[in-house]
């Protein structure tokens, strides 16, 4: 027993252990309460132990947990109907995670051209700073050296261009290009929104060249930005979209959505999953949609966003040597730090407020979408206290 640690040491974990959660709050075994603006990385969209989700999960647990996709799963069909009703999509494939939703999106794009007599079109253009998951194909799509190193030959077929360089994207399209894949708001990369004009420009470019637009809305989707999906802010629709995180509210599942035309190659036997779309996941997924599709839900997200943004803007004015910029859309908010983002996350944690570091020296604030105005104000007080601790004035 040279090494007694049983887990792969791939994560740097916070020392705090939580035992229970309710709404926007987490509690340690000793009863210490933390305000959760990490949201399990944009996953707990409806907060912890939301009564409607608990009820859906428990009642499904008493009936039936799992069926393979060799059976009809009525709740899977129902959730797909509701998702297609609410979006651009005609077709849905359910997965267990975000990376698998992206894998399905990539396969869907390649198969589309394969069955339409252009098998040479398989390449996908992606953007520097992107994050699409940790499978072999999605680390190739993300193109980040730190995630690719040591994992053998990079999966072929991804061409990366700089962020915000429309001309570079144009120049990268050739007769092997199948699609352009982007996050409407780069999450992991540092909460960098793609400007609306840019998204519209990409849509036009795809139409012009007869290629597909794939959006990765794993982090930005399901109400997080104040629209059901972030691309709605730009008034465009993709051909294919990957979704996960918030769609399960904490139950692990994802989905790939597509137009009927884009999905025309995904015929019998071309793709599959054992767990994807099983009854437990679908019970929770339908319950999440019940809440997110309520009339006032997105209004609430936009209302609390306003309070958060105003508070952060004022903190930026008061601590210019610590905060360089505030960015993002809705409750996908980033504080671009002038000093170390890790130090700010730690200082916030000392004030019992959880947040997530991101690339580009950013601290991400990803609270449950049900966060109240009072809770946002409480978080702002705690951020202020953390900034004060880090401020040169106070040392
Ligand atoms: C988290 C994330 C993924 C990967 O999702 P997993 O469930 O971790 O596989 C992909 N794309 C984006 C934009 C993400 O934020």
TrEMBL record:
UniProt subunit comment: Homodimer.
Modified residues (N6-(pyridoxal phosphate)lysine): 245
Membrane found in the keyword field: no
Binding site for pyridoxal 5'-phosphate: 98-99, 131, 216-219, 274
Enzyme Commission designation: 2.6.1.11
Locations listed in the record: Cytoplasm
Protein name, as recorded: Acetylornithine aminotransferase
Pathway the protein acts in: Amino-acid biosynthesis; L-arginine biosynthesis; N(2)-acetyl-L-ornithine from L-glutamate: step 4/4
Note: May also have succinyldiaminopimelate aminotransferase activity, thus carrying out the corresponding step in lysine biosynthesis.
Name of the encoding gene: argD
Residue numbers binding N(2)-acetyl-L-ornithine: 134, 273
Family assignment from sequence similarity: Belongs to the class-III pyridoxal-phosphate-dependent aminotransferase family. ArgD subfamily.
InterPro entries noted in UniProt: AcOrn/SuccOrn_fam (IPR004636), Aminotrans_3 (IPR005814), Aminotrans_3_PPA_site (IPR049704), Class-III_PLP-dep_AT (IPR050103), PyrdxlP-dep_Trfase (IPR015424), PyrdxlP-dep_Trfase_major (IPR015421), PyrdxlP-dep_Trfase_small (IPR015422)
Cofactor: how and how many bound: Binds 1 pyridoxal phosphate per subunit.
């Amino acid at each position: 027993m040279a090494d007694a640690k049983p887990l792969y040491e791939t994560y740097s974990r916070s020392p705090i252990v939580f035992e229970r959660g309710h709404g926007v709050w987490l509690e340690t075994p000793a009863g210490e309460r933390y305000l959760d603006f990490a949201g399990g990385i944009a996953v707990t969209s409806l907060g912890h132990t939301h009564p409607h989700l608990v009820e859906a999960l428990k009642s499904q647990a008493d009936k039936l947990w799992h069926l393979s996709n060799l059976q009809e799963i009525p709740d899977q069909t129902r959730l797909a109907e509701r998702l297609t009703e609410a979006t651009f999509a005609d077709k849905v494939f359910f997965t267990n995670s975000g990376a698998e939703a992206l894998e399905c999106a990539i396969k869907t794009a390649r198969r589309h051209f394969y069955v339409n007599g252009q098998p040479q079109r398989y390449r996908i253009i992606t953007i520097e700073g992107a994050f699409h998951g940790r499978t072999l194909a999605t680390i190739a799509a993300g193109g980040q050296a730190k995630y690719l190193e040591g994992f053998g030959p990079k999966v072929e077929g991804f061409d990366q261009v700089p962020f915000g360089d429309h001309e570079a994207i144009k120049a990268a399209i050739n007769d092997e290009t199948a699609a352009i894949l982007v996050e409407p708001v780069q999450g992991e990369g540092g909460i960098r929104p793609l400007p609306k004009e840019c998204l519209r420009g990409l849509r036009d470019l795809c139409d012009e060249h007869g290629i597909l637009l794939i959006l990765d809305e794993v982090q930005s989707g399901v109400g997080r930005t104040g629209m059901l999906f972030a691309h709605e802010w730009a008034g465009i629709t993709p051909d294919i979209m990957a979704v996960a995180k918030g769609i399960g509210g904490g139950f692990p599942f994802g989905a790939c959505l597509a137009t009927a035309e884009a999905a025309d190659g995904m015929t019998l036997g071309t793709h599959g999953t054992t767990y994807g779309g099983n009854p437990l996941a679908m019970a929770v997924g339908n319950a999440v949609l019940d809440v997110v599709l309520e009339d006032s839900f997105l209004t609430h997200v936009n209302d609390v966003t306003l309070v958060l943004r105003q508070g952060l803007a004022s903190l930026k004015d008061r601590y210019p040597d610590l905060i360089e910029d505030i960015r993002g859309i809705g409750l996908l908010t980033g504080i671009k730090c002038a000093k170390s983002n890790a130090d700010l996350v730690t200082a916030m944690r000392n004030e019992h407020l959880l947040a997530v570091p991101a690339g580009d020296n950013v601290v991400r604030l990803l609270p449950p979408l049900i966060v109240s105005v009072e809770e946002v104000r409480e978080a702002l007080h705690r951020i202020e206290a953390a900034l004060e601790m880090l401020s040169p004035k106070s040392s």
